[in-house]
Amino acid sequence: MNKIYGFATVSLFIALILITVVYSYTQVDLNLTLSTSSFYLQLQKPLTQLGYFNRPLSGSIFLGLFIGLFIVYGMWLWGIVSQRLHPRLIKIGIITSFLLVLGYAAFSYDLFNYLFDARITTYYGLDPHYFKALDFPFDPLTRFMRWTHRYYPYGPGWLLISLIPSWLGMGKFILTMFLFKGMFALFHAVNLWLLHRLLIHIKVKLPLFWLAVYAFNPLVLIESLVSPHNEVVMLCFTLFAFWLLIKNKVYGGVLAFAVSLSIKYISAVLTPLLIWRQKIDSRFFTVAWYLWIIALIPVILMREVYSWYFIPIIAIAALGGSFIPFMVSLALSGITLIRYYPFLLLGEYSAQSYELQLIAMVVSGVLLVPASLWLWQKKSAG
């Protein structure tokens, strides 16, 4: 029975990962040609037809992937709690998840903004704080970008890090895009390693369960590997700061935390907790989770409920190992990730899509809250 369950879980997960990679190419912008190879164009044509000219089917496929990824997510967690999954299978699943890096950045244009911000420096020799994409109307990348009117909005640390793949890309779009994606995948891998080490060190019960809470979360997979965001990098340096402080390497921990701040300033909310720390344990991370949630409220009110905002929330919830952060993080994962569905279905953000978005978010939350309660009861019983 255990072997059958393990085989079914891994097989379904691998299938969903591969389908997600293929599906992501349905969203390649109509103004972007990734390759002029006749073989590629033959493959891309039906995918473009699906994504842009058969939106009902495209939306249904996304909805199926969304449901499937959350079902298999529950299978991973239940399998660990019930001891139906060998740790080796969990490693196979985590390694398999990195295939998502091969996908197109289908669900957000932020990757292209990161790429162009760095390109302003490495290609044009200018400062993106004072120049924006619209200042380069003849650059071919501006044909398919969004938010071309904004100046560089992040901290200096992120710009310095993003210069590396931009410089290595030598001005070639496809190479640079996958160098950026590879960099995000590397930081994601480090996040998983740091989470595992921290979970073991603070002696959280069932560390593999809590690692899986982050590693197989559909939101984390989509927003870290398919359409990656710099929250992944910010989180990496935040976790590294925790790890160094646990090892009593105070100066190194402060430096790592400063780098995290220099990527996105929101991690500053943890500063008081780090200054007045007595012991870094699961309670420490539970308090950190609440602080981060509080810091996100004004950000969300000023902008939108973007799903990638919650990548650090899910990681810190795993380290806290307590019920409310687990339940809320799981519910938020579904509520925010399902927001892509109306756009993929309708192709625009309108009154109808916002209404559908709200319905989908409510349904997702209604289903995931009891699911998280059930999983928690099984975990506690185990």
Number of helices: 17
Unreliably modeled segments: none
Question: Helix content range of the residues, please?
Answer: over 70%
Class by SSE composition: mainly alpha
Q: Let me know the largest β-sheet.
A: none
Q: Over the alpha carbons, how many angstroms does the gyration radius reach? A: 21 Å
Distance between the termini: 18 Å
Number of strands: 0
**H/E topology pattern:** HHHHHHHHHHHHHHHHH
**Silhouette:** globular
Return the average pLDDT rounded to an integer.
92
Strand composition percent? under 5%
Transmembrane segments: 57-77, 89-107, 173-194, 206-222, 228-246, 253-276, 282-301, 308-338, 358-376
Keywords: Membrane, Transmembrane, Transmembrane helix
Pfam family, one: MptA_B_family
What does this structure look like?
- The chain has 17 helices and no strands.
- The protein has 382 residues and is an all-alpha fold.
- The radius of gyration is 21 Å and the shape is globular.
- The chain has one domain.
